[in-house]
Amino acid sequence: MKRIAIIPARSGSKGLPNKNVLLLEGKPLMAYTIEAAIESKEFDKIVVSTDSEEYRDLISNYPIDVIIRDKSISGDSSSSFVVIKDALERYSAEEFDCFVLLQPTSPLRNAQHINQAIKLFEDQIDHFDFLVSVVESEKSSILIRPIANDGSLSHFDTDFANYTRQQYREYSPNGAIFIAKPDCYLIKKHFFGDKSLAYIMDKKSSLDIDNR
What are the backbone dihedrals phi and psi of residue 87, each rounded to the nearest 5 degrees, phi first? Predict the structure, then answer.
């Protein structure tokens, strides 16, 4: 299998300015993801897509490619899809079997997680087109309901006398790892659905700096 890792690292985040180069224990945040990708030894190509020449210079010591993306796909309204599409088109001649999206905001996702996710996906590649890393949700959706207009909890109509957390175990994407067959992704434009496989990660490894 021929694989490419795509690491998006835009400089203009409004929520946490320059989050991708914030120092975490003395190292820029995005360095953790770059190093995990390298240490996994899974990739024929590792690409960082950024809008910042400063970011490019900061990671110039790594054996990776850096794309300076066009301003038209560097704004707050630019979707992940257009960034991934841009990277895939630039390397289309290399005909990768799959790509792995690794977001810098998941610094505790390590090489072992990448290895496990890729193995899980490729072991079932005849049945699935996508993989998404997930973490168990702290609250079941059964416990998330609107308050009625009269101020009551009438929408909480589950039989809570018999409720157990295990009975309603649910998961949500943690943003750490996304895998896809390029052609399938370019058609669907997202990673979810019945052709998408879940890779379950623990809560600690699922830390998302966007939330901190």
Answer: -65, -45
